[in-house]
Design a protein that fits this description.
Oligomer: single chain
Structural class: alpha/beta
Radius of gyration: 22 Å
Largest sheet: 6 strands, mixed
Number of helices: 12
Distance between the termini: 43 Å
Shape: elongated
Strand content: 5-15%
Order of helices and strands: HHHHHHEHHEHHEEEEEEHH
Strand order of the largest sheet: 3-2-1-4-7-8
Helix content: 40-55%
Number of strands: 8
């Protein structure tokens, strides 16, 4: 299990567990920092997940908190000495920090719920569609052909997680999203995209539902993605649920429990209002000219 946890989730899980252990020991950050001869900023960065703690630092903290047994062993294993970097980190020069963090979270999620009212969800896009979207950045910022290709490559690489049947992916999309063309997208490109959606909807772990334009919509809500994560033995969930919203140029990761819970309720409302799976497939097929 631990070997399957990516570096983003390792860092976050260690941060939350180390913070919990300090609080259970009845200590504050200043006391711990002074005892270990660390700066308070170092401990703060470890406990907030800004940096990944080394196995040596975790061992010192566990000893200071008198944390023993299997739980402590799991935390040491989670820290590791040679944790490989996530593939997304090689794009740190291209993507915003929030986007990189999101990709790391998405990569480790087990349940992904997406509402999209503007574009086809990134995990469901064809290369041609994704590349056309990437080209649109030229209207608001300098984007060289190389950068456009790299943005497209990131999107294609992200899609590999859907080949893992342990991942459950559900998307609700506006009918307008399936009709909308971006940039130089032509009819053939959109037909290819729609047929790709039909193929993906055949997979056992992927559900796609369509919200028709003609029906009464239950709520006016921008696109969002809700992520849920697996649990570890003894240590519980690797991370709390996270919601990601993207409204260029603003990107946000929402982690406050109450806000995330509201999004989960909203997604249930959207699913209930949308066409069921088969009716959605029929709709997509009709739009694709099949």
């Amino acid at each position: 299990m631990i070997g399957e946890i990516n570096p983003t989730l390792r860092r976050r899980k260690l941060a939350s567990e180390l913070r919990r252990l300090r609080e259970e020991a009845g200590l504050n950050g200043v006391q711990v920092s002074q005892a270990l001869h660390w700066s308070t900023s170092k401990l703060s960065r470890l406990e907030t997940g800004q940096v990944a703690p080394s196995a040596k630092d975790v061992a010192r903290l566990l000893k200071h908190y008198d944390a023993l047994g299997e739980e402590a062993d799991l935390l040491l294993e989670l820290a590791g000495n040679h944790v490989p970097k996530g593939w997304w980190e090689s794009y740190s020069d291209l993507l915003a920090e929030v986007a990189l963090e999101y990709i790391g979270l998405e990569d480790g999620a087990r349940v992904i719920s997406a509402w999209h009212n503007n574009v086809v969800p990134g995990l469901l896009q064809t290369r041609a569609y994704a590349q056309e979207l990437a080209r649109l950045y030229r209207a608001v910022e300098l984007a060289t052909p190389t950068q456009i290709e790299r943005r497209t490559r990131v999107r294609m690489r992200r899609q590999q997680l859907l080949t893992d049947e342990r991942v459950t992916y559900t998307a609700v999309v506006e009918e307008a999203t399936l009709r909308r063309r971006f940039g130089e997208a032509d009819e053939a490109m959109m037909r290819e995209q729609l047929r790709h959606l039909l193929e993906l909807s055949d997979l056992p772990n992927i559900t796609i539902q369509v919200m028709l334009l003609e029906q009464q919509h239950p709520i006016d809500l921008s696109s969002f993605v809700h992520l849920r994560f697996p649990s570890m033995r003894l240590l519980g969930p690797i991370s709390g649920d996270v919601v990601y919203t993207e409204d260029y140029p603003g990107l946000e990761l929402i982690e406050a429990e109450e806000r995330v819970y509201r999004y989960s309720l909203l997604f249930d409302v959207l699913r209930e209002a949308a066409l069921d799976e088969q009716a959605s497939r029929d709709c997509i097929a009709s739009l694709a000219g099949l």
